[in-house]
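lol forgot to send this yesterday, sorry. struct tokens for the thing we talked abt
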């Protein structure tokens, strides 16, 4: 009998999968290696109706090799040109897990620039699709290297709309879900503030607080669940080269 080793990356993949549980027949959009494996795990287990694309132009009945397009394999089932993605976003039939260079206590996300926007210290990738995503469909975030530089009291630029800004029309379909990091899983309380949902095995509340730039309380937080043996087999099949361990190395 072989004993499977469960790594921090595996725990993160399972947490991402759980974030997509019950999303239904929507287009899953996942940025990052761990999120990409997580949505595949979700589709293979509890939410088979999730729609996956190859990131370019095809909906996939069977996903291509990790980080590859339909040209490298898998089974395309429909053509979905880039212009159609905007229709899907506007209809709300999409569930996205984006990255973040900064996240504040209300879930505002920044991927645009660091410092005063009029003279930034560092220019990043711009707001991209974050504003449209966060006012049209559910958005989660993935942070591979949780630190106080990312979890800040106030973002320098609001790319993705947080709970304190989602008022009026902008709040009609606003739906922030969870934040999965290499240390913990977060949600939001009734006031829209970031709260700890679970803490990963091996992480202490003190370590989590030190890595977060605003007050949090993880003293009574449960442990994030570990993937089952069946889930580990799927994870390994989707990522035979172990790319997830490069994104989330063991500490």
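and heres what i got for the seq, position by position
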């Amino acid at each position: 009998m072989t004993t499977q080793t469960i790594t921090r990356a595996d725990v993160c993949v399972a947490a991402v999968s759980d974030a997509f549980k019950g999303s239904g027949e929507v287009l899953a959009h996942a940025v990052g290696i761990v999120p990409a494996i997580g949505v595949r795990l979700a589709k293979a287990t509890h939410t088979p109706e999730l729609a996956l694309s190859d990131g370019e132009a095809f909906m996939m009945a069977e996903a291509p090799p990790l980080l590859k397009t339909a040209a490298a394999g898998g089974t395309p089932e429909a053509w979905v040109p880039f212009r159609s993605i905007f229709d899907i976003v506007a209809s709300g039939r999409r569930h996205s897990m984006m990255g973040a260079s900064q996240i504040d206590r209300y879930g505002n996300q920044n991927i645009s620039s660091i410092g005063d926007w009029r003279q930034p210290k560092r220019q990043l990738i711009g707001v991209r699709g974050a504003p449209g995503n966060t006012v049209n469909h559910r958005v989660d975030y993935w942070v591979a290297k949780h630190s106080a530089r990312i979890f800040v009291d106030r973002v320098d630029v609001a790319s993705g709309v947080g709970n304190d800004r989602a008022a009026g029309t902008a709040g009609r379909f606003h739906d922030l879900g969870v934040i999965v990091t290499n240390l913990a899983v977060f949600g939001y309380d009734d006031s829209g503030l970031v709260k700890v949902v679970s803490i990963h095995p091996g992480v202490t509340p003190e370590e989590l607080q030190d890595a977060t730039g605003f007050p949090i309380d993880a003293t009574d937080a449960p442990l994030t669940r570990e993937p089952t043996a069946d889930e580990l087999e799927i994870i390994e099949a989707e990522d035979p080269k172990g790319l997830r361990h490069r994104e989330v190395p063991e500490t």
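The CA atoms of residues 188 and 194 lie 4 Å apart. anyway ping me if u want another try
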